[in-house]
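S., here's the first fold you wanted:
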Amino acid sequence: MITDSDRYSYQKSTYERPTFPYVCGRACSFGQPCPNGPNFDGSCGGTTECTPFRNGDRWECRRSPSAGGPCADGPMPDGTCCMQHPPCTPQPSLRRRRFRISTLVAILVVAAIFAVLRFEPSAFQGDQANLSSLMPGPLSRAHSNFALEETGCTSCHEAHGKGVIAWAEAFVTHQTVGESCTDCHAFGGPATTAHNAVFDGGGGFATDSPSAETRTDCVMCHTEHKGKDANIAPMKDAQCNSCHQSTVSSFSRDHPAFAAGFPHDRRGSIQFNHVNHFSQYFPKELAEDKQPTCVTCHDVQRAGLDVPPGSFEQNCASCHLEGITDRSLRLITLPYLEEDPFDMDQVAEVCGPTPDQVEFLRARAEGGDPDEVEFDEYFYEDWGDYLSPPMALMLGAPPDDNYEYNEPVGEFFMALAESGLEPMVERLEAVPGDARPERLLAGLDGELLRRAACAWMQKMEYEAPSELTGGGWQSEGVSVSYRPTGHADPIARAWFDFAVNAPRAAEAAGADEIVIEQAELLQTTLLGDTGLGNCAKCHAVTEVTDKSGEGGEDAAKLMVEWGYQPVEDRPYVQYDHGPHVNLLGPGTLCATCHKLNPEADYAASFKHFDATDFAPGFKPIGKETCTQCHTEAKVRQDCQLCHEYHLEPGFIRTMGFQQTAQEPERPGQDGG
């Protein structure tokens, strides 16, 4: 009974010996062991029921009570037991068999370790390295091309090749293969933090403690030795959900809604109103079967994150080229002058006689009596105009106050007549800002300036001997101007780059108020509808941060966005138009995602310099647009389809593919 405290008494129970190396053969054969059990040497100990004991001159039976107690016949006269049995064959106990197996396995392991140490991958060549006892499997193709051939296993496993002591140390110390990854791979943030960044408390992770964010390991997601064709980059959605608080079982069900205004983060660099072109300009100017479509302008062959448009010559020139070449910039003009600021004797000395004076002198030399040459005393009042914005800025005078600019104009024109281009270069260099006269005045002939100044001081218009028809520097009677030669004219671009920042540069330099006003006038003139080349009609002017500010401080400046600016990459987000274009067909179903927004005040977005304050010409794209295809049983919707784990992944070493050493292929081996 369970309550019998004496149930294990020697009189009721046999003594079990679990550590004894042998068990009774009768127990193994038919489950009835003898009371004595085997001897320690493995021989049978149950041939007799007991070992009689001699007490004085008598032998006494010593059979235990649990086996039945003393037998009725008692011992034999010679002291042997009267109960004789044939011997059994004791068997090794389970404990002994396990010990033998464990010992054998330990010996095999030690032997294998010694064998491993004797056969390293370096003892094999090329693909035969996989035969090494140390090789857990072939590396992926990207890694095998340099790891085994350059530094071998030590490329990733630092302890390899350093001997048994280093290996033993590696077993008991923290070492990670991931630390070797950064010898080649670079990221836009800390390599061992989640997404290579440090997020604040709103990062959306299951825990925002620093310890959880600051330690990740490459081998958590990327494991090698799976074969040359293995792709070790893919991750499963479950790996993403293990850290992010919001579990996304599938894109179509659980993914958060896209941000308001997605994917438009800023206005474009080119002011192209899709609504007006498709609803007004194209129908008005072109027949219905000739009207452009999306792919007329956008190059689907280069489709990627965006679908870039073609060049100006391909898309725009047929309508807009004339609007560029017919808008000039007047560099200097003959201003309205109520008082003549020029000394005619000095003018005659510098410029020589006028054509009329030459004719007068010739007639007198021939004995005639010609009329005296008279200058038009109202010439400056009849033909004069306001100072041009560039000229007003160079002179530092208001363009409409002839009393203020009278004397500076007289000095300036005389200097031009004497030295040509040099005085203008000096005045531009004195203007605050990055004027760069070598760019602003590129191609301008100093002789043109000298002759124009002389003619104006002698109260005459000046026309250049040969008229330019393709644009460039030219004289137009009472002005010298520049007309663009075509799109992307370098001189026109130089004037815009200078003018847009001229007011800020003047203020920063502490210039006089009049200089600041003239800088603003130049900026306004160029950015207006009649500005040089009409560049601002299409090209946005945007405020940006200048990293080259004095003292290492960032400063804001304006930049003309001359070229098409591709869509900026979003961290951790990747998208490719290519597969979508191939699936839907180029140009046929673009409006599936990109829907025009006729209610947006698109033009107002370009009347200021803040690129983030804008009204896009297209409606935002919502998640429901994507789930038309990316849903269960249709198109894949895993996290890695659109998201990238790493921030700005790249390389910090030159990856040169090396030819793996191998036997040369022999003709016919591949069935050829």
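And the second, which I think is the more interesting of the pair:
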Amino acid sequence: MLQSLAGSSCVRLVERHRSAWYFGLLVLGYLLYLLFGAVVFSSVELPYEDLLRQELRKLKQRFVEEHQCLSEQQLESFLARVLQASNYGVSVLSNASGSWNWDFTSALFFASTVLSTTGYGHTVPLSDGGKAFCIIYSVIGIPFTLLFLTAVVQRVIVYVTRRPVLYFHIHWGFSKQIVAIIHAVILGFMTVSCFFFIPAIIFSVLEDDWNFLESFYFCFISLSTIGLGDYVPGEGYDQKFRELYKIGITCYLLLGLIAMLVVLETFCELHELKKFRKIFYVKKNKEEDQVHITEHDQLSFSSISDQKHEAENTSLKMTNETSLKHRQDTSNLMREKTRITKDLHLTLMAL
């Protein structure tokens, strides 16, 4: 008996705090996924980093041995300055002196990466004025960009998602949930093809040092707004039509970001995902619901009362207008009757 009571109380406790338990599992799962990523990245990339460090150490030692007129400290100072300039997007290579990082097209590309929060980091403001303006520009521009993207996605999704699903549901009689799932899968496949696979092929052809995997990696990192900056198109030393290429990349990033948001919104509107998300949300208390219901009833009662008073006032106004018109018509008839009687009397006297 006691065991059954204890079991039932535990079940009631779990049912009462189901959302909290699910949320705790969600947090735990996210932390485990974060740790899993750290372990995998560390185990995969650490050996390559160690090999690169050993290679650079050997190259540095060989250079110092071959150029004894240059001390190791002088070499360290020179390399530090070179790395600092490289971090600002300025290269010391002789064949890279012809490309500027702050011409109009490069500045346009930089502005688009700032507003979309991609931020490759390959080009950064050099002056204090540029850094201050970047802060002000971002504070205003990022919310403006979010508003712009939200408005665009809200309009696009009506024609791309909602109307096609509704059309097949009404005219063909298919289940709305099944049509929505199939449509989301097809839309996702088309987006991946048009904004990932095809651009990756194009980038692998236009960029000399990129293969297909690196090009696809750039597309994903860019359109997901991660923007690591290890691969940036249009930075080649012998890049042809560099200005036009930069403008095309800017348009690609903007359109790709809109397409990604449309796909995400389409999947978020799926009934199954809505139900799945709700298990992690905080449920409203009954008291809060009762307050909302009471407030809604009060608002409804007030609205009904206002409508009733307005109807009474309108009816009274119409009654007054009708009465006034009736009195005016009666007065006109009396005057007309008096005029006819007077004319008849004058006619009889003339006879």
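Why I say that: The chain has a mean pLDDT of 80. Residues 179 and 237 are 50 Å apart (CA to CA).

Talk tomorrow,
H.
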